[in-house]
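Ligand: S-adenosylmethionine. Inputs:
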Amino acid sequence: MKKYVHGYSRREAVRLMDQAKTLEEIFHYDSVWTEGSLILEAGCGVGAQTKTIAPKNPHSDFISIDISPDSLLEAGNTINSLEIKNVSFQQADIFNLPFEDNYFDHLFLCFVLEHLPNPMEALAKLRRVLKPGGTIMLIEGDHGSTYFHPDSTEAMEGVQCLVDLQKQNGGDANIGRRLYPILNESGFNNINVSPRMVYVDDSKPVLVEGFTKNTFAAMIEGIATEAVNKKLINPERMKKGVDDLYQCAEPGGVFCYTFFKGFGTK
Ligand SMILES: C[S@@+](CC[C@H](N)C(=O)[O-])C[C@H]1O[C@@H](n2cnc3c(N)ncnc32)[C@H](O)[C@@H]1O
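Predicted complex:
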């Protein structure tokens, strides 16, 4: 990863937590593994998903890795404060995994492949440490699935700025639509990809706050300065784009986005 587009700021950590909390049911109603499994969570970040999937699988064990020591420290504090006992954290690089072949029963990744220049290589490295018959579970977004009311050309340009910045860093913010082919080309079998659509209107105040405002609009706001500095957009259009996204969180506003969840077997 050349540079992680969202950075490791406090604000970003809070955004990841908000996102995970709001989308818990949509993402994780089926994040359940056979009891007694050993699961590798790769790219756990600040533990935003860990704190949901670990208690949901109390009779399995998780090794959650990340390349960022600061994120791991925060993840560890969160998991300790919640008294979750079935997770151990380890600093490790997906591209240089310190585990034997066929070590894990299952793999889990969320919002990691989208930041990597070589997702296929990452999957090959991860596949090595997965037992034959073990599964992979992946969750990714796809910014091309964004639409909203009131519509706004500037807001769409703001979203495109994030897609462009992520591409400059070697990632793909529209990777969700590629999960099936990527898993297929990586040699996984029994692949199943399901869209996880988030639809928000003002009858769903928790999603308005947690997703439209604190996840999506905050994410575009978070890259606004960099996008302007890199001359991807002029400051006025970027400001209007961000304001218009926040407008979708006001009464009468609607916001739609589709995540993708993929499963495969080794
Ligand atoms: C967007 S965050 C997602 C965190 C968490 N999975 C979640 O859903 O909130 C991506 C994470 O992948 C980690 N990461 C990126 N490249 C990595 C690598 N080569 N090895 C391990 N972790 C990596 C980053 O440090 C970051 O914490």
